[in-house]
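Help needed: design a sequence for this.
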């Protein structure tokens, strides 16, 4: 699989970052698709979602439900590596499912060539109810309802699109969100990235940081810890850590990449946010879950540069929709004093 096929690539600084409709909590009117029959018998070809491993493909089918509206089916695995063995379907796993849904729609329904590069500009995803996300005795069937707004050039080629929608798990709405992405040809992407020489083995040029203990960040599997032990700053509510990059991780680095993927940055931000909230408010990290995340990718995070994460924790807020308290956390990913990604998360205690 070629480098341009990464769909978790952040945009360059020159690319504008529009405000996602999902961040404001609005979703455009679209036809409901309860009558649309989707298959859950087999996953789609891995090339349609830019994955090397068949085991990393979760979407199974898709259909057009109206003008610029689509529905995508996915099966949620109960014990995936990134999901571990949590009582709830993992937030990062669901982010990947939403990513795959967007890429599938682009290729299958919008005619985007398979060797195109997908550059995510922003992504927002919010949990609307925890109960549908509880793992049961069988893998859950998910439906991702999407309304898209397409941007084309004069020749009619799709240059990108934004989308909003929701995620249903076994027939119950569990999440809503959206995002925006830019689509480049393979040639254009390679030309853009060739301006900077990337070492053959960039990971070996960095210090080998020690990852935090899984229990500190709400993880159970040490392979899924991507941050060093978070340290409290002198200013109250401020925490920081270093990103731990493992290019052999079979989920995050399913295929070779020339940058730190947005997927990894979001998971690292989740871990720092959970650890910070737990320490600041004396809570059990395993009782905490990310209720929402909104990201703005403003520059590439390079593999041969140290990435520092810094978080600012706010106070408790009551979330009427979820029926629980949440804690907002702002996280920045920084390389050489440049913020590559800004993320806003809400951490909730559930159960």
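Sure. Designed sequence:
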């Amino acid at each position: 699989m070629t480098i341009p096929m990464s769909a978790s690539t952040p945009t360059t600084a020159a690319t504008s970052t529009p405000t996602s409709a999902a961040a404001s909590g609005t979703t455009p009117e679209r036809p409901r698709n309860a009558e649309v029959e989707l298959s859950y018998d087999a996953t789609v070809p891995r090339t349609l979602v830019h994955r090397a491993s068949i085991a990393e493909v979760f979407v199974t089918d898709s259909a057009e439900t109206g003008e610029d509206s689509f529905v995508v089916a996915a099966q949620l695995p109960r014990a995936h590596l990134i999901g571990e063995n949590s009582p709830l379907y993992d937030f990062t796993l669901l982010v990947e499912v939403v990513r795959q849904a967007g890429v599938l729609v682009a290729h299958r329904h919008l005619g985007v060539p398979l060797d195109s590069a997908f550059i995510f500009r922003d992504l927002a995803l919010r949990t609307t109810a925890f109960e549908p996300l509880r793992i049961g005795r069988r893998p859950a069937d998910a439906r991702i309802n999407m309304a898209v707004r397409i941007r084309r050039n004069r020749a009619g080629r799709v240059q990108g699109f934004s989308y909003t929608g929701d995620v249903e798990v076994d027939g119950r709405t569990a999440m809503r969100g959206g995002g925006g992405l830019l689509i480049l040809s393979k040639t254009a992407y390679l030309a853009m990235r060739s301006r900077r020489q990337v070492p053959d083995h960039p990971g070996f040029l960095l210090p080998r940081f020690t990852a935090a203990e899984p229990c500190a960040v709400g993880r159970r599997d040490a392979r899924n810890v991507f941050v060093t032990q978070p340290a409290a700053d002198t200013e109250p509510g401020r925490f920081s850590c270093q990103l731990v990059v493992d290019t052999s991780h079979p989920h995050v680095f399913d295929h070779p990449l020339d940058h730190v993927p947005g997927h990894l940055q979001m998971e690292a931000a989740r871990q720092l946010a959970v650890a910070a909230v737990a320490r600041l408010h004396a809570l059990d990290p395993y009782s905490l879950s990310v209720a929402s995340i909104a990201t703005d990718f403003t520059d590439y995070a390079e593999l041969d540069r140290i990435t520092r994460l810094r978080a600012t924790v706010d106070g408790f807020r009551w979330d009427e929709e979820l029926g629980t308290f949440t804690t907002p956390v702002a996280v920045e990913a920084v390389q050489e004093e440049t913020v590559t990604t800004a993320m806003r998360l809400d951490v909730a205690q559930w159960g």
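Residues 1-31 have pLDDT under 50 and may be disordered.
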